[in-house]
Amino acid sequence: MPTPKLVAVAARKVDPPEDRMYLEIYDAIMEHRLPAGTKLTEEGLGEIYGLARHSVRRVLAKLAADGLVDIERNRGAYIASPSDEEAHEMFELRQALEALVMQKLIDTSRKSDFVELRALVARERDAYMRGDRSQWIRLSAEFHIELAKLAGNSLVVESLRRLVSRTTLLISATNPSGQQPCSFDEHAAVLDALETKNHAKAQQEMSHHLGQCACRLLDRPPQRFDLRSALGKI
Description:
The protein is mostly helical and 234 residues long. Helix content is 65%, strand content 4%. It has a 3-stranded antiparallel β-sheet with strand order 1-3-2. Strand 2 (69-72) and strand 3 form a beta hairpin. Helix 3 crosses helix 4 (53-65) and helix 5 (84-108) packs antiparallel against helix 8 (154-168).
């Protein structure tokens, strides 16, 4: 008869290798351990994760669908590195989509709907104050996805997920001197306006916030790194 310890081990959920690879690369991109423009080779990733090339290919395709990786014919897969022109176009589209989210939330939301979003903003503020920049960036992006989910349009959610992921890649891994990002305050201002059903104010606060996000985008200097080390596989 198996011991309780063996039963517990057997019951423990183990992520399939492809899922684990996807999540680890996703985290490494979002936490800026893998710089924009980095080439991801099927051979190198297969060696690191012990996966066949067709499995690696599926993971890269999923990352590409999320907008985090660009796959170029005859060249391979690279961490997405949007141009200035694309960045402008993405934020222009985000302005339109998130204005739609504001409109839907003004019409349909209740105060109780914002409890979890308030908690998310509090975690975002805490991460920034603790100096955990990668977690702060992750939560800042998550805020926009959760707002869209609350609005209830699945197509908008999926469109924003890709746009938010891709624009997050443009945020510098370090703050320039004197610049203090305050996305959590801007997020709180959006929630304040939504809770009071102030449509004009909600639209204004979100538009201002996205404008500030665009202004914070900085050119990242070239970075030296080791793929195995970046994925925590030393």
